[in-house]
Predict the structure.
Amino acid sequence: MNRTSLLSLCVAASLVACTERTPGPTTGADSGASAALPAPAGQTPTPAPGGAGNAAAPEAERPTPSGTPATDAATADSGSQTAGINDAGVGEYTGAPAAEKGTCSAAGLSPRATPASPALPPPVESMRQRIIAAAVACDYTALNTLADENGKAVRFTFGDATNAGEYWRASEKLNNPVLARIVKVLNLPYAKQGNLYFWPAVHVTGPTSDKDWSAITGVYPEDEIEGMRDQGSYLGIRVGITPEGDWQIAVDGD
């Protein structure tokens, strides 16, 4: 082989070697998947942070944590916070001695007054409600306090007694159901005379018909009602309260 042929053969061999060489990895270009980190021999290569299968999900695609959503503490039932019925001053009287509670004539009656018609001025209604509540609780101390609440004692007798609570306590011990009668008349229709609201109304209007007399049935025994009818006037207990709520009268007789 001559020298020229030998040179041509070498050139051809060099060209073949260059075209068959596999290019190495290109650095600096992000193909969307990072190359695996080199690992020691015998171990599986660890994907690089942010590589395929380990990339952070977009905000909109992140899964929502499981669990029940928290309730809004401000959406409480407002009805459960209602303070109950507005009774215009009904008191919860618990100051009566334990031995007296439930032992008076009014103990079995309701402590809630029936609605007045027409409606009373608030101070009058408040006093009416509180008298009833105290009487049903057999609380003589509370009754005496109400009698003197505005500095003017209640007319409760035509005698010389000065303590209404003690006077009614003594009456109850003699089986005179004065507390029950006070409660019952305060639940009857009322009438205004001068500066006082009176219960029952027949004390002011006068019992002129069977309907008037039937209004006090249950307050007094039938024989006592017949005695009043014979005299032509109501002589039973009457309760008087001023427009300012001052309890002034709770007396019977003439």
